[in-house]
Amino acid sequence: MSKILNVSKLRKTYQSGSGTLTVLDDITFSLESGETFAIVGPSGSGKTTLLGLCAGLDRPDSGTIELCGVEIDTLDEDKRALLRNRKVGFIFQDFQLLPTLTAMENVAVPLELQGVKNAQSRAVTLLEKVGLGARVHHYPSQLSGGEQQRVALARAFSNTPEILFADEPTGELDEETGQKIIELLFDLNKEAGTTLVIITHDMDLARKTQRILRLKGGKIHREEKVEVQ
Amino acid sequence: MKDLKSSGTGISWLILMAWRDLRSNAGKLFLFMSSIIIGIAALVAIQSFGNNLTASIDLQSRALMGADYVIDSNHPANEEVVRIMDSLGGPDSREINFASMVVFPKRSSSKLVQVVGTEQGFPFYGELETDPPAAARDYLVNSSALVDATVMLQQNLRPGDSIKVGNISLPIEGALKAVPGRSALSSSVAPAVFIPYDKITQTGLLQRGSRLEYKYYFVAKAGQDLEVLYEAIDHRLDAEGADLDTHLDESRRLGRRYNNFGKFLNIVAFIALLLGCVGIASAVHVYIQGKLKSIAVLKCLGASRRQTFKIFLIQVAGLGAVGGFLGTLLGVGLQIAAPVLLEEYLPVEVDVSLSFPAISLGLILGVLMSIAFALIPLMRTWYVSPLSVLRVQAENESRTGKAQLAVLGLIFLFLVLLARQILGSWEYAFFFILSLVVSFSLLYWVARILMWTVRRYFPEQLGFAIRQSLLNLFRPQNQTSVLLLSVGVGAFLISTLFFSRDILLSKVALGNDENSPNIILLDVQTDQVNAVENTINENKVPVLSNVPIVTMRVDEINGRSVNEIRNDTTSNIGRWVLNHEFRVTYRDSLIPSETIISGEWIGNSEKREVIPISVAENFASDARVEVGDRVTFNVQGVRIPTEIASIREVDWGRIQLNFSVLFPKGVLEDAPKFHVVSTRTGGDESSAILQRELVSKYPNVSIIDLRQILSLLEGILEKIGLVIRFMALLSILTGIIVLIGAVRTSKYQRIRESVLLRTLGAKNSQLLRISFYEYAFLGVLGSLTGILLSLVGSFLLARFVFEEPFVPSAEPFLILLPLLTLLVIAIGMLNSRSVLNSPPLQILRSENR
Description:
The structure holds two protein chains of two kinds. By secondary structure, chain A is α/β, with parallel strands linked by helices. Chain A has a single domain (3-225), classed as P-loop containing nucleotide triphosphate hydrolases (Rossmann fold, 3-Layer(aba) Sandwich). Chain A has helices at 47-54, 77-87, 103-114, 119-129, 145-158, 175-192, 203-206, and strands spanning 3-16, 19-32, 36-40, 62-67, 70-71, 88-91, 163-167, 195-200, 211-216, 219-225. Chain B folds into four domains: 1-62 and 262-391 and 399-424, no CATH class; 63-253, no CATH class; 442-510 and 708-849, no CATH class; 543-679, no CATH class. Chain B has 27 helices and 21 strands. The two termini of chain B are 36 Å apart. Classes of the chains: A alpha/beta, B alpha+beta. Chain A binds chain B through residues 14, 48-49, 51-52, 57-58, 70, 75, 77-79, 81-86, 88, 90, 92-93, 96-101, 105, 109-110, 112-116, 139-141, 155, 159, 167, and chain B through 1, 4, 6-10, 13, 16-17, 20-25, 293-294, 297-307, 385-387, 389-392, 395, 845-846, 848-849.
């Protein structure tokens, strides 16, 4: 298996008032293609910042990130956007659907950005797959939280990404709905063979992955493999 | 990255995305659209209506002349003049006039009148007003005469009585009440008697030595540029002792009112557009603010900065085009409606048609102004970090600095070009835009200082509502700068309209007040002055002026005699200066219609050898003299050497006696002279009684009744005043609607907080009070700053553009300030209405769309 994500000696700081706040320090880890991976830690441990850096949404102060074979910290904003469009999928805690687009259009956007001709029919197929065949023309505000996250799942897989980042995917859902979403996420992931990175502080969810990275105070506290249950 | 090619999206996807985003935001963008529509509509309506009115005023000036242009001369046209006239297609009508005594056999009395021989056709514009009306047409057919109405009254004449002009006797067809071309007030006017042109020779009065004037009236060909015509032939005519007058001179003679009127209309149009621009900027600012999250999501999904920028740019441009088109249609509609509404005030029928160049201009301008004023808010899309979709606070972008400066430069350039196009002068354009830039900067700093002051001296002891409203002024996502800028600039522009309207209306009103004469008595001899004044006073009307007049001719200019200059074919001194019998007065001060433009006014000669005189601008330019040049005048055989001490600009449009040549006191007191006495009478009857009494007591005195001319001028000025008010009102309405838009857009800023406060248990009354205080602070401060700025701006406008004294009215402070503040408060509180009436969750959901 080849490395899909290679993070080395990553450091990220923010200016906070008069001082400098170190959010991440000396982070090094790598991910194999097709692996499922969880980053866990208490609030303020730097989980989300790490996800932002790994997905090319932000730049580190020092260290390197190689995503899908590309050193992303050397790329400009538009090249990173292109890389995300072709190789990366996202699922967010608060769904982040475009409120002015219908469910189908939301799912079709990544494909349309690639210039795929039948983007909309593929979007409908994906929505049917997540059980929303009857809701394709609904706007996000007309959908429940669980339905919105299912649309987000369909959107995340629509561009057949090599790696998928999920940021607290069940954070805004009740337990039952959250459970269904996670099942759907793992099913889709298995089917597509995508590398999956989940940010969570839910250990039950983390244990569904193959490997867990524990962060504490911006540093790697522990890295552990999950026993296959 | 080798296997990654740039995105496969084309313009069609960008348009599709722009449309998708737009369709569910129609409500939010309604204000953006209305800003463009109203701005463009006002521009199109004002410009088109303005053009129509200029045309109608143009026609009025033609009516004052009776033709488009006139060639006149003191002798019959020579070969060269005939050749010139032939090249113009020949005169459309001819006239000969001269002063002569006429006899009224019925009263066995005689009177000095201006005998005018006219041909069929004249007047081509305006009309001869006669009593009975048919007389204006019949006198040419019946070979009869029209006699000045005042003379008819003085001599107690009736139609059918006869008049003897030289060798012939003619029946009187009717009384002449008003004549185009004879409305200009001058001290040399004598009452007119019109007779047919072909009867002139039979009078036997055309012998040598008579002071004759030959006039040739022309109607211009369609599209003929009279300025060009003047440039081409006036000097040729001048060389032959003839002169060309166009109706343009006539409107110029009416003063600068027309010029200022045009300037005002252009300023109104420009302000309307600017208000539209302010509306666009504030609407797009708030719109994009609400889109930042979506933009971050799009970037997360792989859209480039250029793609996201273009999606919103396309949206704005598309809306601009549609808004421009609708605005143009509305403008044309207003243009059609305006003449209907103002029909009774408009002297001409206005042709209205859909003009495709106007519509395309509306489209182009709609797109251009939308893009220009949306650019700064749109630039924010470029720098939105995709990271902000996560819960991480993205770093502040400081990179916008340079780009923002470049965009501001671009906007400045756009505005200057637009201003140049509309205002017609680079100078005004820079002046206007600069004052706007200064206003914007000052307002911005007022906002900053307000925020700093409130934060620094925060009154902790105050109640919850007022503390919340004060907090709203400076906390993150505050609307202080945006609202102060839009309210302030709105107030600035609206109040500038108020002030400049007042400048123009005061000018219009100046022409006719209690002190303006409407009866002029000519040829009052020095020994008659006291008795005439007594008669006037006995009739309980005031003597407004008593002006001594001395007649004189030019003898020498800078040491060269008049004959020498006449024989010098290379001399370009106007022939009229050499031939004219000047009617000159003397006094020690200037009158309101006079302004010294060079040299120094000297009111007393103090026994100098060379008399310091003042000449009007037209005399100086035609006699080719400047301050310091010498002119010798001949006063009934006595040569008086003078030096030009000053040159005056004379507003010939003022209803008062104006003079080309003005002497100081202490020189002409003993010269043979007569007086011109003026008074102002009430109605027709009292005027007739006074005139009859004066004529019977002092038969040598000529009376000019100015009431006809005054009513014509009053009519024009009234129309101008009405149009000024209408246009200002239209633009002020535009401003108020845009202001409503600007404040309304702030709704989306506050709604989330209001919902949260409501969820936490805030009562409706508390939410309303918070809104009230916040909008009251912003309303008062924004309007007051705007009005104070416009006070300075209007002063500069009055001084440099209208060239009129500036007397600020209290209206903007007393009416505009409370009105705008109340408006801001009312809209602000209306914004909270939806929060008060619906459950919090429902509001948040609907706002998310």
